[in-house]
């Protein structure tokens, strides 16, 4: 039985975590066993998730399987893009400058700020009344 060679990477965005497997193939892409547009729901999110492949002209070169969990669909799309970019670097180091310039290798650390006691949200205070 032949063992298939693949490159794996993890991408993160907000509270979403994407585990990406990249293998040489014909361009089949699955996110949680579904087509990217079916899973993410919007063309803009699909474009954002597959942006690393478009920038490096590798859209039809790899079969990609992604397991993504946590967060919402927007965070998941960002996590998928981050994971694919990292996996591409593991596969071919010469793609690094292109992906770095596009900002796809940087983990976007912006998270939702926690709610503080005495406030309505993270920073919104209750209305002040003087009298």
Automatic annotation (TrEMBL):
HAMAP family: Ribosomal_uS9_B
Molecular function GO labels: RNA binding; structural constituent of ribosome
Entry GO CC: cytosolic small ribosomal subunit
Gene3D superfamilies the UniProt entry points to: 3.30.230.10
The protein's name in its UniProt record: Small ribosomal subunit protein uS9
Pfam family, one: Ribosomal_S9
Family listed: Belongs to the universal ribosomal protein uS9 family.
Keywords of this entry: Ribonucleoprotein, Ribosomal protein
SUPFAM superfamilies, per database record: Ribosomal protein S5 domain 2-like
NCBIfam families for this protein: PRK00132.1
Entry-linked InterPro entries: Ribosomal_Su5_D2-typ_SF, Ribosomal_uS9, Ribosomal_uS9_bac/plastid, Ribosomal_uS9_CS, Ribsml_uS5_D2-typ_fold_subgr
GO BP annotation list: translation
Name of encoding gene: rpsI
């Amino acid at each position: 039985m032949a063992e298939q060679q693949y490159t794996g990477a993890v991408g993160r965005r907000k509270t979403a975590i994407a585990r990406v497997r990249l293998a040489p193939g014909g361009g089949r892409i699955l996110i949680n066993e579904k087509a990217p547009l079916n899973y993410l729901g919007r063309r803009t999110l699909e474009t954002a998730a597959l942006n690393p492949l478009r920038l490096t002209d590798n859209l039809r070169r790899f079969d990609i399987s992604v397991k993504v969990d946590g967060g919402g669909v927007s965070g998941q799309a960002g996590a998928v893009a981050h994971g694919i970019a990292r996996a591409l670097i593991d596969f071919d180091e010469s793609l690094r400058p292109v992906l770095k310039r596009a900002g796809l290798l940087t983990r976007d650390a912006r998270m939702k700020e926690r709610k503080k006691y005495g406030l309505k949200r993270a920073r919104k205070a209750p209305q002040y009344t003087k009298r």
